[in-house]
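Replying to the earlier thread about multi-chain prediction with a worked example.

Input:
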Amino acid sequence: MRLFKQIAILLTIFLTILLLTILTLNFQNASKSVAERLYEDAKNTATSLSLSLGTANGNISVMSIMIDANFDSGHYGYISLVDVDDELIHIIKKTTNTHDVPQWFIDAIDIKAPIASANVSAGWSPIGILNVQSDVSYAYIQLYTILKSLFVSFTILAIIGLIVLNSIMMIILKPLEKVHFQAEAAVRNEFIIEDTNIFTTEFRDVVIGMNTMVLKAKTMFDKGNEEFKKYKELEYTDEVTKLKNRKYFMNKLPEYLKTDASSLGGINIVIEITGLIDANEAIGRDSVDKLLFNIASILSEHSSQYKHSIVTKMNAAEFFILIPDFTYEDGLVLVDSISTLIGDSIEDYELDASKVYSSIGISEYSYKDRVGVLLARTDSALTHSKYLKNNKYLEKVENKSEVMNNDKWKNIINNALQENAFSLTLWNVLNTKNKKIIYNSISFTLNVDSKTIYSFGQFMLPANQLSLSNNIYKNILNMLFKTPDKRLTSTTCSLKLSYDYLMLDDTYKEMKNLFTLYASDLPFKLIIELPDKLVRKNSKQIKQYKALFENYKINIGIGEFIGESSDYQYLQDLRPIYIKADKDFFINQDEKALSSLRLMTEAGGISLIATGVNNVKIVNQLSKKDIYIIQGEATDMIKF
Amino acid sequence: MGIIKVIILLSVLSKSLVSSSSNKPYVEDVLLDRITKKYKQYAKIRFIKLQDTLDKTKRISELRKLKMVNDFYNKVRYTSDKKIYRVSDYWATPYEFLGKDKGDCEDYVISKYFALEYLGIDSKKLFFTYVKSSKFKETHMVLTYFKTPRAEPLILDNINSKIFLASKRKDLIPIYNFNPKSLKKSHKKVHKKWDILYYNFKIGKI
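Result:
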């Protein structure tokens, strides 16, 4: 319960008790005062009437009339006159009339009208004693009216009091809202600095303390960001051509060589410039560097037209252009253009074309290839190209053709979409340090029948080719939210969504509708994993997704991280709970780069997860790099 | 010897029959010490004389008791409340009255009332009577004694030191009679002035 509410309840109880006590005391005083008044009135009447009766010289009938007249003029219960022998001379009384007062009040309040007496004398001789009692019903009416007035005034007082208290508390506790807001932000790893212009000393000290802590964490993050940026720039960029280098290519390649890659394959063009040593001697190193920069520009210009293509400088004289979904025939046209332009560039520097020239090999690649195979095939294409001296050679991928054709896949996937034939499978995300499963990664299988089951990797690739993957993601999300699997109850699970699906125009709207209806009833904690290449753009779309996920308390994870951003501020803005990268990314990382990444992620409360960890050897390699959270087949090999 | 023993026994018996409070002095020693401390030695002597007077009157008739008490207190000097207490009207306790050795008409009445009550006279027979003095043209108070409820009262006054029947006191016009004991049964409060006085008397205000 919030402090404001607690204090408000406490003060309300206190105020109510206080007002009720005052009301009770007031009413008791009023009751006492009314009772005393009853006596005083009776006493005054008794005294004055006894003096009057003295003038009657003991004439009983005159005295009786005087008593009756007095009785009629005021509020009396009775008036009696007894003689010196205690014999009753005269009495007049009336019945109690309390019609205007509720019975509960009469039952609750016991009012006794006291009897006041006075001696009555005629000359020197006493006649008797006059007894007067005030009318108790009149007292009840008076008291009941007082009680009603007290209730009204105390209710008004209570309302005013509560309003004033509430306002004062809101002013006093306003800084606490800041502290609360900042504390919540700190839990979310948000770096918020609050204004310290606070009246209450204790709150000001807390805010100053929190600001200092937040500032420290922010400084750590910024330092990590700066260092990681610097290391990555040095690590991934070729100094002469400003192209990405071999390391980048090696880290980036797994994105293309995976079962759920967005492309089945394409071509990798290798360009080697021969005779650079001669060129150095002929025109000098600076000019050669400029020549290489020009060549890099030619390659970049050509590749930029193709989606998901990458250009890298692999070594001093070798360049790669990897273009997914590209055929050899298309490649030939591209290579011709590149070859001509490189030739022209060499000529511009008046170099001997027989000594300085380019050799170009074209090799196909498939998503099934291993990195080593792709490189070997590329190497072979270059060797053949050089040997044949025609500067072009195609190294084909063997067994490229799929077991099933696209039409068959189309039928299977469409049927599965119609019949919701996707089944959930869970992969452990394990902390090898304490051997605890921290998340489950959600994956799906496509079940044609009890015997034919396709894994996610198997069916997603053709689905990508057939443009059906987005429908599959939509189907999976609906299934997860509308009919969540019982195995997920009370767990934390991550669901990976693809770049293309998230970039679709309708995805955000559909997700929002789905979340509005079902997210609050989700029996498990969901992490939605977004690809790094999408989130690092920090676009308006990403901000929309972030706001949507935050609204429904869905965490964000980042997948396919290779640290190729020019700035990592987006990690602070997005506040993911983890970053997933291929095991090789961590293993091949420079220690300094990795420690700066760790500095940044620790400051931001982000876990680092290595994927594709399939054996214990890799687990040990990762442990040496202080990477303990893993995903892959090795999670089943760790002994608990 | 037998006759002497009978006389002593009768004397003891008669002493115990006079009053239940006869063994208790009218002014107890502790109170007397306080009075002495405040009003000095002469006051003490006055109270000893009072006690002597009261002791002497224990076994005599009511009328004699009235006379002795009336005579004793009428020796006190009359002084207005304004001069003594700096208030227009104050009902002094018998201790204040005799301690200061001065007082006004109510103070005489009060002191006589308590002394007679001490002597065993039924307080129902004693009335505080507000009267108008035709001689002095002012209000006055006297103590009236009714032998029976319907009898003609005797007037114990400080102006006229002798006790007379009411009918003999043509200079006094009765206005209002007041007997605290007859009213006591109706309510704990009887009469404002009386209530304060009675409280002061009980706590031994001097």
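The helical segments of chain B are 2-18, 29-56, 62-74, 81-85, 94-100, 105-118, 180-183, 192-203.

Feel free to reuse this layout for your own posts.
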